[in-house]
Amino acid sequence: MKIEELVANVLELPLSLIKDSSGPATLKAWSSLKHIQLVAALEEAYGVTLTRHEIQRLTSLAEVRRILQQKSVEVGSTP
Amino acid sequence: MFISPDGWLRFPRPNEHAIARLLCFPTAGAEAFVYDYWAAFLPESLELCSIELPNRGSESETEQYKELSTMIAALAESILRHSRQGQKLIFYGFCLGAFWAYEVACYLRGHAGLQPVQLIVAGFPAPHLRSTITLQMRTTAYRQLMTSYYPPGTPQHNYVLARFPSMIEDADLADQYAPPLETPLHCPLTVIGGWQDQFVKAEHFWSWQQYTTGNFRVQMFEGDHFFADGYQREFLQALTEWL
Which domains does chain A have, with CATH numbers? Predict the structure, then answer.
């Protein structure tokens, strides 16, 4: 599952709506509760632990990808 | 997204052309990101800015505060530093956030001669009655209720559990002395409450009336303390209409 697919699954949105710029400020479905769910899903899928600082900066798909890459996660690959 | 260098202010969608800035003060233990998604619902004319309070664990980017007065001063000064010329300020505070919003409004009036154009508070009694809530926050019943909204083991349940230490630290701050009401604010004050609020007596929502000489109204909704969670879209639409 690619990262955008994971985000789409958590948000229960069609994959076509998930862009790099997508985030809580652009997608109404990206609520605070979904944000918490997304954090858990990312941690489980990629075997990482996100710090509070990182959780606060998951502000778009591009940022999610960047933060995971910083943790040496190969995004885009199957977790 | 812009986060102020001092860590206090979070702007999910910065907009220098917005005519007003909606400053959202989070409830006890909550983090600023909980308001991010509001930006997707609000009109372009409003710039959302949520407040990140200190005392949020070892990773906190804001300084740790043990005194209410110094925390309020530091927060208010950050709001002033990052304000845009000509942009109006609207304060919204939910639960304990209502108290923070009021205290910051008082500080800004006293130190900078400005007030928000509107103060909106939800799910909280007037400041002089705040101990009716902070006392409850230390009870087992409160913990049980707060965790009852989500099934055990879910991310949301675990998140609420992880926030309890910060909730208590916020309650400790709120319990400290704050000057009693002497001169009411002049801005319109709107109070929002749920008829079935487990923590706030319905009559206590009207206790805010003495805190302003401006227009005052209480808007009650069906639902409990977290009534807005049940119909966020409608709540934000109503909020936008009031503004």
Answer: 3-70 (1.10.1200.10)
SS3 for A8-74, per residue? HHHHCCCHHHCCCCCCCCCCCCCCHHHHHHHHHHHHHHHCCCCCHHHHHCCCCHHHHHHHHHHCCCC
Which residues of A fall within a CB distance of 8 Å from B37? Answer: 24-25, 27-28, 30-32, 35
> Which domains does chain B carry?
2-242 (3.40.50.1820)
Dihedral of CA atoms B32, B36, B37, B43 in degrees, nearest 10, equals 120
Measured CA distances, B161 to A45, B58, B143, B174 (Å)? 22, 17, 8, 21
Single-letter code of the amino acid located at B113: G
Residues of B in contact with A52 (CB under 8 A): 31, 56-57, 59-60
- Residues in a beta bridge with B192: B122, B219
In this predicted model, what pLDDT tens digit does every residue of B62-110 receive, in sequence order?
667 889 999 999 999 999 999 999 999 999 999 999 999 999 999 999 9
- pLDDT tens digits for range B1-13: 899 998 899 999 9
Q: How would DSSP label each residue in B43-101?
A: -TTEEEEEE--S---TT-SSPP---HHHHHHHHHHHHHHT--TT-EEEEEEETHHHHHH
The predicted pLDDT at position B226 comes to 86
pLDDT digits (tens, 9 = 90+) for B123-142: 999 999 999 999 999 999 99
Report the predicted TM-score, pTM, of the whole model to 2 decimal places: 0.92
Per-residue pLDDT tens digits for B139-184: 999 999 999 999 999 999 999 999 999 999 999 999 999 999 989 9
Mutate to test the interface with B, among A42, A51, A52 (most CBs of B within 10 A): A52
Cα–Cα distance, A53 to A55 (Å, whole number) = 6
